[in-house]
């Protein structure tokens, strides 16, 4: 038995890097499949499926059904209204690249939405894992630590999204590729990538902030790290382009529906069940959410204090030694995305999913080399993934914990 294990380990180590990453990714997807099928086996009837759904049916619930609606019928020209005259939940909240890509492949292959949407997510997830390995090798300079970063990436608490009908898998692939291009300073390739990425998931504004900070840091450090005028102009213009792409989808929604605030009002409809219908005030949602979740009868602003402590902890974490080792660019991205979430997102059960773009931090978690630590982290991540799927993916009656 020991000889067989050693032989298997030798064969694994002899594989090219992409073969090892693919093997890790495949093993992680098998683990996620087992967890998902175990939950599906006890799943009762729900708004999307009957009891005990098949894997593919179960993988297309929640937002997967919204993407299906977009793929089949497109976007409404007339916004739906609630009984009290507010804009209700509708397809404009879901960007077009993922559902239209799946729809195109459905036409070519004649396969069904559940199959094609899941396959697209699985393939995009593999692409993300491959590029993530190259990114981690670039910033950490250690292939073994980079590979363990990939292991954590593949078994992370929300990594089941790599095999569900959500746009996150495709977006993650595009994002990690974009970060890799910035680290390599191959800026020109960012233009088409940003154009697609910004219409896959809301990301243009966060990436624009990231590029703006990148320009500032490179300008300040230009004596030790030359920053030619050509690159200054190029990156600055790409940052502006990213900001414009971040505003394009709301503009399209406004033009098609005739309502300039169609997109933001649509997004606000999802948080109305918590705090009612309100206008979007930048940097207010987290405080509104914290006050709702941590309502204190004493009058003490518990929610606001918790948010401030989270902001301070987040800021300090970026200066930890393992995080600093990731390099300036990845830290700037994590900071930029954190600012973006703080500005516009209302915290609820989807928070776990929306933290997915902070995946570069896995490179910091992966750095300790103790075997006990690494095995423990994998087990903790798989346990957390199980908990996330049970809490957020499984449907229990009138479920208020959407993924």
From TrEMBL:
GO terms, molecular function: alpha-1,6-mannosyltransferase activity; GPI mannosyltransferase activity
Transmembrane helix found in the keyword field: yes
Gene Ontology CC: mannosyltransferase complex; membrane
Transmembrane intervals: 21-42, 111-133, 145-164, 199-221, 233-256, 299-320, 332-351, 371-395
Main location: endoplasmic reticulum
Biological processes, Gene Ontology terms: GPI anchor biosynthetic process
Pathway assigned to this chain's UniProt record: Glycolipid biosynthesis; glycosylphosphatidylinositol-anchor biosynthesis
UniProt protein name: Mannosyltransferase (PIG-V)
Lineage, top ranks: Bacteria, Bacillati, Actinomycetota, Actinomycetes, Micrococcales
């Amino acid at each position: 038995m020991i000889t067989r294990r050693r032989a298997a380990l030798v064969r694994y180590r002899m594989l090219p890097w992409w073969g090892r990453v693919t093997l890790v990714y495949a093993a992680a997807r098998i683990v996620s499949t087992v967890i998902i099928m175990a939950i599906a086996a006890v799943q009762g009837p729900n708004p999307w499926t009957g009891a005990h759904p098949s894997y593919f049916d179960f993988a297309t619930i929640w937002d997967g059904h919204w993407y299906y609606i977009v793929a089949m019928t497109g976007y409404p020209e007339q916004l739906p209204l609630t009984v009290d005259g507010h804009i209700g939940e509708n397809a404009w909240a879901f960007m077009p690249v993922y559902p239209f890509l799946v729809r195109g492949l459905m036409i070519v292959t004649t396969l069904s939405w559940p199959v094609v949407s899941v396959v697209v997510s699985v393939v995009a997830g593999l692409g993300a894992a491959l590029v993530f390995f190259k990114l981690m090798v670039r910033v950490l300079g250690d292939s073994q630590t980079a590979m363990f970063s990939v292991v954590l990436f593949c078994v992370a608490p929300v990594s089941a999204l790599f095999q569900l009908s959500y746009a996150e898998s495709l977006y993650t692939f595009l994002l990690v590729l974009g970060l890799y291009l910035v680290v390599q300073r191959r800026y020109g390739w960012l233009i088409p990538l940003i154009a697609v990425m910004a219409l896959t998931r809301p990301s243009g504004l966060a990436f624009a902030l990231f590029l703006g900070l990148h320009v500032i840091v490179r300008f300040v450090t230009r004596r030790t790290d030359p920053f030619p005028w050509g690159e200054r102009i190029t990156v600055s213009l790409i940052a502006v382009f990213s900001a414009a792409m971040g505003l394009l989808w709301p503009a399209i929604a406004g033009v098609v529906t005739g309502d300039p605030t169609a997109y933001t009002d649509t997004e606000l409809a999802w948080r109305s069940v918590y705090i009612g219908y309100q206008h979007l005030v930048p940097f207010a949602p987290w405080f509104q959410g914290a006050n709702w979740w941590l309502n204190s009868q004493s009058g003490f602003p518990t929610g606001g204090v918790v948010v401030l402590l989270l902001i301070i902890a987040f800021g300090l974490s970026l200066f930890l030694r393992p995080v600093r080792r990731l390099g300036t660019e990845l830290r700037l991205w994590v900071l930029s995305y954190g600012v973006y979430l703080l500005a516009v997102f209302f915290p609820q059960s989807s928070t776990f999913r929306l933290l997915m773009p902070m995946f570069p931090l896995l490179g910091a978690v992966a750095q300790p080399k103790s075997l006990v630590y690494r095995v423990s982290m994998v087990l903790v991540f798989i346990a957390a993934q199980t908990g996330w799927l049970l809490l957020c993916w499984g449907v229990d009656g009138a479920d208020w914990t959407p993924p």
